[in-house]
Amino acid sequence: MVAELISVGTEILLGNITNTNARYLAEQCASLGLSCYYQVTVGDNPDRLEGALKQALKRSDVVILTGGLGPTNDDLTKEIAAKVLEKPLAEDLHTRECIETYFKNSMHRVVTENNWKQALVPQGAKVIDNHNGTAPGLIMETRDQKCVILLPGPPNELYPMFEQDIRPYLSSLTKEIIYSRTVKIGGLGESFVATEIKDLLDAQTNPTIAPYAKTGEVHLRVTARARTTEDAKKMIRPVLKELKHRFGINIFATHEEVSMEDKLVSMLQKRGWTITTAESCTGGLLSGRLINVAGASNVIDQCFVTYANAAKHALLGVKNHTLKKHGAVSPQTAREMAKGAAKAAGADVAISVTGIAGPGGGTKEKPVGLVYIGCSVKGYIEVMECHFSGNRSKVREATVARAIDFARRCVIRYSK
Amino acid sequence: MVAELISVGTEILLGNITNTNARYLAEQCASLGLSCYYQVTVGDNPDRLEGALKQALKRSDVVILTGGLGPTNDDLTKEIAAKVLEKPLAEDLHTRECIETYFKNSMHRVVTENNWKQALVPQGAKVIDNHNGTAPGLIMETRDQKCVILLPGPPNELYPMFEQDIRPYLSSLTKEIIYSRTVKIGGLGESFVATEIKDLLDAQTNPTIAPYAKTGEVHLRVTARARTTEDAKKMIRPVLKELKHRFGINIFATHEEVSMEDKLVSMLQKRGWTITTAESCTGGLLSGRLINVAGASNVIDQCFVTYANAAKHALLGVKNHTLKKHGAVSPQTAREMAKGAAKAAGADVAISVTGIAGPGGGTKEKPVGLVYIGCSVKGYIEVMECHFSGNRSKVREATVARAIDFARRCVIRYSK
């Protein structure tokens, strides 16, 4: 079964926004076993939208349109869909009531005449209530078993509507399910990982293995198509086993929703340990990422941002002699920062970061991108030297990711 | 002149990645005065790619294809373009040498047979060197004055190539230039801003005003089309003046590349002031954002992440009595955090944040999303109460943005 996505919106054509809806819907369709051969974006133009919809209905089975369901004159998706499918528009009483209620509850907004057009519904369409906005979703089935789905553009309206109503509907159309697991690897480069599983990538049929790179991580998504979820899980199991065999502790998670920091915080909670951080160039991004984990309060009390050398000395006890002789960006300083932070915070684990994020500050001996990451676990201290490329923002982002992975490995190493 | 974007890549159709290239190119085309009516994504499929290119050549003047220029068997864009434009492929010696040099300099990679196909070039095409990869860009002009441009998919190869070679080429095609300025507003909601300039939005022709919302900011992009940059600047000037008149100090920048933190750090540098932060739920994201500004070292020495109550007391001197009576999330605690941080760091300005990011921790009196932001400027302390919606990540992101804007306003207020 083939799905096609049509994104309606001049703001996408102008490059004002990134089309994240297309990515979300494409991923959802793939997970439902729908093949997607085309994604098209058109503006708020009736003729071009009509042409795109007609073309989609010729070549695809399911056409999902997002955007253009608002109350203004530029919003045409529903009108065009009704025209192409030759259905008259009539006011749906239930939807009108939903719109009235939505405005009553939203405190400061008055229904405008424009909004009533959102209560118009093509004859025969299945109306999907919108709990986060005024435009209902619509499912229209055509005479030749095709399906046209109209969804609102704002992600906070689209995502819940898709999850609650559209996904179940599409599931009923396809005879297959797709089940995925994501093997997440830290601290290894994408080409290295791809080389290590070249034989698996070349031979793949079902399940498939799709690698993709994130900052400091490589994800391997293993996907199986089958008649039931149970069958799909059975097909995936040996692939996961083989990947675990090949990558060992480089793998920090095997579920899509588990992040590196989730894993680290969870490991600390299991051991009843606390953690602190001492950051220089990353300026708080590392502690910020750890504290994003719900439940971080069980393992974190305080963290340090010691941007100036004087602060490294005053707060962490880094020796002035060390700063003078080796400099702030040195393994010696990273070591003393980790040791001092663990002591000052009374924490079992401490991660320290000191480096040159750029654009300025680099020299021949210590170029931009040079970063030292220190990790103290129950008094055992290791320091890692890194060389990152890219702009200031990229260097800091890569540093934070590497630091979390480094801490994870150190905690494993010194847990025995 | 009409441009069309064709993104080639199955990974986009599968929803594995977000199509940020389309957004970048759309924005670039708009800024060059090219109208964009269609954006299409197809996979690594020869028939569908050929169909998409033929259709694009019928309805558009400039067709820009990204992706599919790699060395593998799936990479077909060049072959299909050559077929559609009826040009034979032949090896380009210069490109072959570029590829050899690229591999020689890249330390650990060996040229594979596959890579040589990247040296094949359609007859008559203009070759654009790729300084960040192996695939050259290609510009092909057709018999009927149309233009097909092939560009590499990886953003770090695409962006520099477009900036250096494609932009000048496209500029020469169009008889108009487009010039934009972005008015950036902090601390006001998008609908409020849109209402304040409804008359301007309704009446706009040239220049145009496009509003769009970011977290904690609203950007108004004012764009003029003219024969010369000078003329465009003249057209924009009165619009900028009117916006400045209407929004006053709510505006923190009038250039696209200036962020809120750039502005705040710049203001502090001008005054010779230093700043510190004391964060709880945002965990370091605020200091992390400030320290992203090159030159932050002139104004920041150290920052505090006081996640536990004990840390707020020990590091910032927040009274145990205050924490017991009012709680960590209270205006009283925010005030004492700001005061204590300024003193402990010896800084002129201090920003404090304490709130409930969720998902847990909320009560009827203090729900998830409740955040207090304190700001101390030369001893004068103000506290702001905020209510944010969304998940943990969104609450923290919104808090950081609001805190930076709040500090900016306080610095202005207490500078007199």
Automatic annotation (TrEMBL), chains A, B:
Q: Gene3D superfamilies annotated for this entry?
A: 3.30.70.2860, CinA-like, MoaB/Mog-like domain
Pfam family of the protein (one):
CinA
Name the source's superkingdom: Bacteria
Residues annotated as domain MoaB/Mog: 4-172
Instruction: Give the record's family classification.
Output: Belongs to the CinA family.
Q: Which PANTHER family match?
A: NICOTINAMIDE-NUCLEOTIDE AMIDOHYDROLASE PNCC, NMN AMIDOHYDROLASE-LIKE PROTEIN YFAY
What's the protein name?
Answer: Putative competence-damage inducible protein
